[in-house]
Design a protein that fits this description.
The chain has about 90 residues and is of the alpha+beta class. Helix content is about 45%, strand content about 30%. The strands form 2 sheets. It has a 3-stranded antiparallel β-sheet with strand order 1-2-5. It has a two-stranded antiparallel ribbon with strand order 3-4.
Amino acid sequence: MNKGDLIEKVAEQTGESKAGAARMVEAVLGCIVDGVHREAKVSITNFGTFKKKQRKARVGINPITKQPMEIKASTTVGFSPSETLRNGV
């Protein structure tokens, strides 16, 4: 399922137009992004938790030249599903 499919499902289940459903999906995703950015963690009951994670700098191998290269430290987002979601899959 991609974002377009999600918008269609939301429109079907809520009776909204696709444009209205798209605004709802965008609002929810925007709130999640903002929450992770500001608070480093967003927990949604019976769904899961989005957390900001720090990756340390490390040495990797360039796949083309096979030479070692420095990979810089970075920030990413991880997702941990709730037990309810894990059991439902």
